[in-house]
C-alpha cells in the first residue's frame, strides 16, 4: 500500500490518512491592562488542571516554570508588559505531577482600534513528545518522490530549527500543526514560510516576533491568493 503524500493533502482531504500528528496545542490570551490570562482547556490540561479549575495568574504561571527557565520567562513577561511585545518563547514547565514539558509559545499582538497593543494571544505547543520515528520515516519516504516539495519542506524545517532552537522532528511537528490547523497543504505552508522570510526585518531582537506573525498568518495569504 502506497503511503499518503503529506505534501499533497490537507488533514480533511478525502479519506487519506495523515502519517503524523501535530504537537499538543492550546491557546491563550494575556491582557495587559489588568494582567489577566485566559487559557484554553488544552493549556489547563498541559499544566495538570481540569479546565476552569484554577484562575491562571502570572504568579501561578511562573510557579510552574522549570527553575532554570523561570527567570527567563519572568523577564519576557516584564518586557511584554513594558513594550507591548508578544509573549513568544521556548521554555520548560512542570505540571502538577512534576512532569517536565518542553513548549514553544507562538504569539502575536492584540491591537485596539487605534493600533495600540492591548494584549498578546497565541498558542502553546507541547513538544515533549516528538514525532514517532516510524511516522517521520513514512513522511520522509512519502515526500521523497517529489523532489521540489521535499526541498521546500526541509528548508522550512531548517528555518524553524534556527528560529526556535528546536530539532528537526519538532520543526516538522510545527509545520504539520499549521497544515492541519488551517487545512492548507504542508508543502504550501512550507513554501510560504520560505518566501515570506524576505518580509522579516533583520535586527535580531525583532526576528522571532516577526517570524511568529509570519507563521500564524501564512494560511491567510495562501487563501487570499487562491481566491484571487
Describe, in plain words, how this protein is organized in 3D.
The chain is α+β, with helices and mostly antiparallel strands. The chain folds into 2 domains: 24-126, 2-Layer Sandwich (Beta-Lactamase); 133-227, no CATH class. The protein has 8 helices and 5 strands, in the order E-E-H-H-H-E-E-E-H-H-H-H-H. The chain has helices spanning 41-46, 58-64, 70-83, 133-144, 147-164, 168-182, 186-196, 204-227, and strands spanning 24-31, 36-39, 89-94, 100-111, 117-126. A 5-stranded antiparallel beta sheet has the order 2-1-5-4-3, with helices on both faces. It is globular. Residues 1-22 and 131-135 have low confidence and may be disordered.
The quaternary organization reads as single chain
Number of strands: 5
Lateral arrangement of strands in the main beta sheet: 2-1-5-4-3
> How large a portion of the residues is in β-strands, by DSSP E?
15-25%
Briefly, what CATH class of the largest domain? Alpha Beta
Low-confidence stretches: 1-22, 131-135
Give Rg in angstroms: 18 Å
Give the CA-based shape. globular
Helix-strand makeup class: alpha+beta
N-to-C span: 37 Å
- The total number of structural domains is 2
Per DSSP, the total helix count is 8
Would you give the CATH topology of the largest domain? Beta-Lactamase
CATH superfamily heading of the largest domain: PAS domain
Q: Give the mean pLDDT.
A: 81
- Assigned CATH architecture of the largest domain: 2-Layer Sandwich
Q: Give the helix level as a range of percent.
A: 40-55%
Reported for the largest beta sheet, the result is: 5 strands, antiparallel
Order of helices and strands: EEHHHEEEHHHHH
Catalytic activity: ATP + protein L-histidine = ADP + protein N-phospho-L-histidine
Domain PAS: 39-84
Pfam families: ANTAR, PAS_3
Protein name: histidine kinase
